[in-house]
Amino acid sequence: MFQVRIHGRGGQGVVTAAEMLSIAAFREGRHAQAFPSFGSERTGAPVVAYCRIDDREIRLREPILQPDALIIQDPTLLHQVDVFGGLAPDGYILINTTRTFDALGLGEFVRDFRAEHLCTVNASELALKHVGRPVPNAALLGGFAAVTGRISLQSVVAAIRDKFRGQIAEANVAAATEAFDFVTRETRERSHAETD
Amino acid sequence: MLKQIEGSRAVAAAVALCRPEVICAYPISPQTHIVEALGEAVKAGELPHCEFINVESEFAAMSVAIGASAAGARAYTATASQGLLFMAEAVYNASGLGLPIVMTVANRAIGAPINIWNDHTDAMSQRDCGWIQLFAETNQEALDLHIQAFRLGEELSLPVMVCMDGFILTHAYERVDLPAQAQVDAWLPPFEPRQVLDPAEPVSIGAMVGPEAFMEVRYLAHAKQMRALELIPAWAEEFRGAFGRDTGGLTHTYRTEDAEVIVVALGSVLGTIKDTVDAMRESGAKIGVLGITCFRPWPAAAVRAALAGARRVVVLEKSLAVGLGGIVSSNVRTSYPGAPDSVHTVIAGLGGRAITREALARVFAEALAGALAPLTFLDLDRTMVERALAREREQRRSGPIAENILRDLGTVASRAG
Questions:
Q1: CA of A24 vs chain B CAs: smallest distance (Å)
Q2: How confident is the model at residue B417 (pLDDT cuts 50, 70, 90)?
Q3: Does B171 contact A35 at a Cβ distance shorter than 8 Å?
Q4: Mean of pLDDT values over A152-175
Q5: Cα separation of A191 and A78, whole Å?
Q6: Are residues B416 and A38, on separate chains, in Cβ contact within 8 Å?
Q7: According to a count of CB atoms within 10 Å of the terminal CB, is the N or C end of chain B lower?
Q8: Whole-angstrom distance, CA of residue B3 vs CA of residue B207
């Protein structure tokens, strides 16, 4: 089972991101379960949503306590909420930011993590550019597909089109695709740098 | 057709496949998405013979459902929590009159303190109201139970409550197999009412009945529920033949063969319990699970048969009978052939408190070791409780309990957990 926890704030499409991720996994013939943290929804309040992916039926209903991957939609949560709770050093971290892990004050924390599992992408800017609103969820799913390889970009695109219609769907597809390309490039450059 | 959709949407789709004629509801979380989806379907003309009636309260919702059902319409509504309490008088009327309304209860705690999260207190408050009560373990089962509920209710002329865990199921996206309209049409015959308000053949429904016959009317309601104990498993079997899924029925056992301890529960927590039991089985623990799908009528014989070989029984329940302990466990004790004090009550998940494998494994291990208390509150924060009790000892005007505890926690608004 692969477990993903998504942290963000009310209004950033955190719950929708988990739902779209589950749809993307479903389209690849896998079992998936997405659910929110069930708070009273308020714009700006910390929100958590979860997605489990497995090859067999998922029965577990507890919140995700030991995630394999984290998507952090809002870096201001880093020092406010225990976003890293339960994450093992071989886990994935994807953060929506223009800054580096070091600049975010996370250098020491991620020292033992695998470098190719850590990634930042400016998803809010990509969303502003394509969608016209800083809703980073779809772009981050594109980045997630690139950094984890657990799901294809095509499935993410299909999930976006399942959830949204028309122009909004296509704008989010463009944001997700650009984020996917950006993260793929970053990862490739980093691995080249390490090889050299 | 396989779909990855929200539980609420899956239930709405199932209800739509049952060709309802009147849908009425008043919005309350976590039920709202179900009737929203049905409202959209009616507005879009997808349910041409169905009227969606907006009402001003839950009391009105049930009253409209009663009127519609008495006029011969297939009627549906949904509610939760305080909404169910607000309609309680009409809930009793629906069953007393023998009207086969189907209602989804998206299970949620009852205030005060106000709490929108999941537990079973709402449904349990109406356990003796005369409705059949079915509890879904998954969204697939919730979907299937609604199709079974219309047929069962209409055959017996009794209303049926389909209970599904609020948020945990209603707001979860997971895979469901949505049947085709033709499959549902073949399995669910049109509503043929036993009684109908028809101007061409006038009757009155709802007579006052005095001591001369009230007991007999109540007895007949009980007899109908006893008949449901035969129909429910028979039709679950038939449903399996038609739809290929083992959903519904009275109870489901899991790894109970040779089990010394059997855990009894209702609803979605059964999944987490099964995963916990699988892990414990790997290390040799003889433990199994009994899931109760049908809570009313109480499936006494099925429970007795399932528990016959168990030395101890752990009833894990998401409701609290304040001043007594467990509601489900009190029912289980009537059907456990062993000593009543071998049935342990574990109150868990009240007001949305997460029920984790770690906590479950701890209490199950205690039960296997014979060290589990008669009544346990899973993951109760004793420090928090002691602090509140100390405050009450120290000062007469100790103030409102909920607000004091939130202040102790350093929070002013409740948080998800």
A1: 9
A2: very low
A3: yes
A4: 98
A5: 27
A6: yes
A7: N
A8: 47
| A138 close to A127: Cβ distance less than 8 angstroms | yes
Give me the sign of the Cα torsion angle B292, B258, B283, B335.
positive
- pTM for the model: 0.96
- In terms of Cα–Cα distance, which of B363, B375, B356 is closest to B417? B356
CA distances B305 to B226, B233, B252, B255, B410, Å, are: 17, 15, 12, 14, 49
User: Are domains B2-243 and B251-377 of this chain identical in fold?
Assistant: yes
The three-state secondary structure class of B24 is: strand
Checking DSSP bridges between strand A118-121 and strand B2-6, what pairing results, if any? unpaired
- Between CA A115 and CA A111 the distance in angstroms is 9
Q: In whole angstroms, what is the distance from residue B288 CA to residue B253 CA?
A: 8
pLDDT above 90: percentage of residues in chain B: 98
Q: Where are the domains of chain B?
A: 2-243, 251-377, 392-417
Task: For strands A2-9 and A46-54, give the pairing.
Answer: antiparallel
The amino acid present at A166, given as its one-letter code, is G
B219 contacts: CB under 8 Å, gap ≥ 6: none
CATH class of the region B251-377:
alpha beta
Whether the CA torsion B336, B339, B345, B346 is positive or negative: it is negative
Residue with tokens 């996994």, as numbered in its chain: A25
Cβ–Cβ gap A38/B117 under 8 Å: yes
| Whether domain B2-243 has CATH 3.40.50.970 | yes
CA dihedral A53, A57, A60, A63 (to 10 degrees): 20
Suggest the residue from A53, A57, A59, A61 to mutate for an interface test with chain B (most B CBs closer than 10 A).
Answer: A61
| CA B32 – CA A157 distance, rounded (Å) | 29
Give me chain B's average pLDDT, please: 96
DSSP label at residue A77? G
ipTM: 0.95
Of B171, B275, B357, the CB nearest to A38: B171
The domain defined by A2-195 folds into Pyruvate-ferredoxin Oxidoreductase; domain 3 (3.40.920)
Bond prior to B30 in cis (omega within 30° of 0): yes
Which chain A residues have a beta carbon less than 8 Å from that of B274? 59
* Mutation to test the A interface, candidates B3, B33, B168, B173, most A Cβ within 10 Å: B173
- Cis preceding linkage at B299, omega within 30: no
Q: Say how many C-beta atoms besides its own lie within 10 A of residue B194's C-beta.
A: 11
CB neighbour class for B148 (10 Å; exposed up to 12, middle 13-18, buried from 19): buried
